[in-house]
Amino acid sequence: MNHNPPFSAHHCHGKDKKPIEIYFFVDPICPECWALEPTLKKLRIEYGRYFSIKHVLSGKLENLNLRKKKDFENIALLWEKTASRTGMSCDGNLWLENPISSPFIASIAIKAAELQGRRSGIRFLRKLQEVLFLEKQNISNFDVLKDCAVSIGLDVEEFIADIHSESAAKAFQCDLKITSEMDVQEIPSLVFFNENSEEEGIKITGVYPYEIYVQILEEMLSEKPVPSTLPPLEAFIRFFQLVGSQEIAVVYNMTTAQVEKEMKKLLLKQKVEQIQAKYGTFWRYINEDK
């Protein structure tokens, strides 16, 4: 008999006060940040009760004013390489067809979403990444930002007012200041802090195998962390709504072939729809109440 509670936000967040705080330095248009998503999902599900994550938005300031065609071509190439290496699809053609003119507007929009709660900010960031990397939408376009707010259930009027507010602009400036004070030079970076200790945080830059992050948690806790049981696959997809085969593979330690086999079962039951991306496959949960 299974006495585990059903999969919910509790799996990822647990109790409020946690021994470890992780600062996640992220840029919504950074393909490496997107590539870190599978690992972060697994970490949150298995060990989320030991840590909280604070998202800190940091774009490289020199990237905020891209104008040259050559710049766009270089970014397009980087996106393609990252996607083929990591399995988290991102289509570099965006930069040749519909380049992002003002990346910082997306960051201010995330801060506006965050004013409706920390989890709203996280869900909005994920939605931006999906429409950017999978649908090649320009996330410096106001209508795109508004559509993202609608789709994750934000109070849209409040969101629009907040995007133009001093609060969102100040919150973004504050994030850039933290980035500078912590001397974060590369995105993504994670900085682990143990609140029971006066020691400096442990900074890890780039994307590493999952075991490395677990090892850091073990070093920082006075106990050996016990991983939570993984939820049933359907519950996982229902919770996150849209996930990539690569995310499922990492979270459930499956091969691509195993993921496809399991997802075909859910496809036949009409629980999910398949979304073909430029690299790999994504799956959207079908909500029966819609």
Write the SSE topology.
Elements: H1 9-13, E1 20-26, H2 31-35, H3 37-47, E2 51-57, H4 69-86, H5 94-97, H6 103-114, H7 118-133, H8 142-151, H9 156-163, H10 166-181, E3 189-194, E4 202-205, H11 210-220, H12 233-240, E5 242-244, H13 245-252, H14 256-268, E6 272-276, E7 281-285
Parallel strand pairs: 1-2
Antiparallel strand pairs: 1-3, 3-4, 5-7, 6-7
Helix pairs in contact: 3-13, 6-7, 6-9, 6-10, 7-8, 13-14
Detailed description of the structure:
This protein has 14 helices and 7 strands. Helix 6 (103-114) packs antiparallel against helix 7, helix 6 crosses helix 10 (166-181) and helix 13 packs across helix 14 (256-268). It has helices spanning 9-13, 31-35, 37-47, 69-86, 94-97, 103-114, 118-133, 142-151, 156-163, 166-181, 210-220, 233-240, 245-252, 256-268; strands at 20-26, 51-57, 189-194, 202-205, 242-244, 272-276, 281-285. The protein is globular and about 45 Å long.
